[in-house]
Amino acid sequence: MAPPRNVVKIAVQMPDAIPQLIQLDQAKPLAAVLKEVCDAWSLVHSERYALQFADGHRSYITENNRTEIKNGSILCLSTAPDLEAERLLGGLQSGSRERRREALQHLVLLTPDVTFAQEVISRDGLQRLGTIIEDGDDLGEVLTLALRAFLELMEHGMVSWETLSIPFVRKVVCYVNMNLMDASVQPLALRLLESVTLSSPALGQLVKSEVPLDRLLVHLQVMNQQLQTKAMALLTALLQGASPAERKHMLDYLWQRNLRQFIYKNIIHSATPLGDEMAHHLYVLQALMLGLLEPRMRTPLDPYSQEQREQLQALRQAAFESEGESLGTGLSADRRRSLCAREFRKLGFSNSNPAQDLERVPPGLLALDNMLYFSRHAPSAYSRLVLENSSREDKHECPFARSSVQLTVLLCELLRVGEPCSETAQDFSPMFFGQDQSFHELFCVSIQLLNKTWKEMRATQEDFDKVMQVVREQLARTLALKPSSLELFRTKVNALPYGEVLRLRQTERLHQEGTLAPPILELREKLKPELMGLIRQQRLLRLCEGTLFRKISSRRRQDKLWFCCLSPNHKMLQYGDVEEGASPPTLESLPEQLPVADIKALLTGKDCPHVREKGSGKQNKDLYELAFSISYDHGEAEAYLNFIAPSKREFHLWTDGLSALLGGPMGSEQTRLDLEQLLTMETKLRLLELENVPIPEQPPPIPPPPTNFNFCYDCSITEP
């Protein structure tokens, strides 16, 4: 008899005692369960004991988490958490270094458990650990264990980081700034300062003033992955807590000290794999780098700014240099303004006054920055792109300025410029650490890609939004590959032309419908025989129902009808003439019979004798697609039963049914359509329970066989 649902079978063990196998009633109070366990081992004062999981973090069992106990769980009987906390905290005050070390080791093991952590914190355990850290009498294992236990307790969130004292924080800063320090201490000290910086603005300012950026650079250059990761964590925390102006100053200083190059060469391309935590911090650093563009992105062009007007003129002159030089000689002011307006329109601005195009926010001044960067750092490509499109007269010109404004918006969206950092994301792009001015360089590649795609699509101004959608897809797909350099990005994005984008869209649509996934294809193949059997059964049932056919005389008159059907036992074809307008005859009233066993072959189209005899007139050609015949033995001669189907559908049904009777394949177009429809419906029904569940491309690997097969289970033995 199976135990009730709220009863689980578990084992309870204790050192130097025989384990107990008990049935734990989850409805019974935990104190009563403890009393029974202690009584079985003749232990008094059950309130001094507690149950723990024997594996993992050895969490204490409480009324809140007892539902985690499952059948087969192994628990152990141990000292109650309050008594254990009191004992270990007493050990911290011992004069014996060895006893303090042992107490700290046990604290580190137990502090991840929230029940034990509450008991330690309620007994001023944080203050006692803080005293050990501040005193710094032992800079080795004892300090390491104290920092780990302190961090575990703080990360439960029961005590705010803002309650830490300034002397304590300064002491931890000293551990970070020391040159000769145990390798296990500094990562923990950096981790503690990171939490302080992110949680307390006031203490974060203290950390920022006390920990020099150069010191963090030293830690980053040490070939210790854990130390590098924690130093990067503190660095990103300091950058996040800084004001935009301070952040820009800090990043400029770090870039001057070649941090970008070091990250690219020694961290991203390190021989050791990049950890998830470091990947997250690099994502944060990339987001903060790109975030420096946000002020320009949010600032519209000021038409009264002399500097910005000069930048626009420089953009125009870089494209139309020869014409721009001639503007200043012998022209009136009105004529000069008219020529400038015309050249700005050639440049691709929607208005004769370009300031109106750049008043949109975003991208604001960032679009102007991108266009200027392109014109100054790739002048030949810039001139070629602008002149190529400004001189076209076939309405297929690509407007450079309008495209640049929209492309800047697109890049900001893809790279999430100005958006807050995610707490878990790791999707940084290595190429942004591969060179300076990476955003502007990416724009230079992207604007040339846009022009190439525009020509491939033979687009006009009306197709502008369609082109931008394709360019978005090209950029998004290439960025998702995380190319390691801008040159690799350029190669990959140019290898993704418009035609390839269309092919990928079609392939993905089919995959979403489940048509091309290997497991779905395999399932469809397994379903085909069964469904072909259903189609065969339907075709034979249709033959049993019978059909009215018309006879065609030599004078092309179709005034005679005859009826043919298959007998229920599928052994006879029965047929006979019927009158116009009469109801279908019964099986017994049909005078003619043809045994299926006598049928030799099925003929269709031009092979049918009744079509062949009529010649090659136009009317006969119309009958080819509806004609079929069956040849059979009639004595010593070969005879034919000729049909002209009333419709194409009846033709397919009868030819399929007769082929099935003769043991041949049903190869009509109607069979293909019916099979596809049935496969689609059956596949969707089979996969209803897997909706929104990703189906793997490959089946899971088959585990290796056991080392021996010397095992069996006697099903006749029942549990008591």
TrEMBL record:
Domain of life (superkingdom): Eukaryota
Any Pfam family the entry gives: ELMO_ARM
Molecular-function annotations in GO: SH3 domain binding
Keywords of the record: Apoptosis, Phagocytosis, SH3-binding
Gene Ontology biological process terms in this record: actin filament organization; apoptotic process; cell motility; phagocytosis
Domain called ELMO: residue spans: 307-479
Role, per record: Involved in cytoskeletal rearrangements required for phagocytosis of apoptotic cells and cell motility. Acts in association with DOCK1 and CRK. Was initially proposed to be required in complex with DOCK1 to activate Rac Rho small GTPases. May enhance the guanine nucleotide exchange factor (GEF) activity of DOCK1.
PANTHER family assigned: ENGULFMENT AND CELL MOTILITY, ENGULFMENT AND CELL MOTILITY PROTEIN 3
Protein name: Engulfment and cell motility protein 3 isoform X3
